[in-house]
Task: inverse folding
């Protein structure tokens, strides 16, 4: 299988992208977003990670610094592809959509 564009000048086809692992999709989408300096894309991904709600609910009080560090660590692991849990289908769709809208 190749990453043959579905139309001339376009990026990879949906089928070609869908055949990739979630980690490969994440790496490709993050590479494009880094090149584009697209903070909005990173923020949208972060909001859909399983621990995002818990991290956002922490108030930053001195007695909650341990949980803040733990949640930040969990979010980092998820953001780097280590634990998508139930959010994986949504994130796969977001990665594929981003790559199709911003072909390299």
Result:
């Amino acid at each position: 299988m190749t990453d043959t564009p579905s139309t001339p000048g376009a990026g990879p086809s949906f089928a070609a992208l869908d055949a990739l692992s979630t980690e490969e999709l994440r790496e490709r989408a993050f590479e494009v977003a880094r090149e584009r300096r697209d903070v909005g894309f990173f923020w949208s991904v972060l909001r859909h990670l399983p621990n995002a709600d818990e991290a956002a609910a922490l108030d930053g009080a001195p007695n909650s610094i341990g949980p803040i560090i733990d949640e930040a660590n969990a979010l980092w692991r998820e953001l780097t592809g280590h634990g998508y849990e139930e959010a994986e289908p949504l994130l796969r769709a977001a990665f594929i959509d981003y790559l199709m809208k911003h072909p390299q």
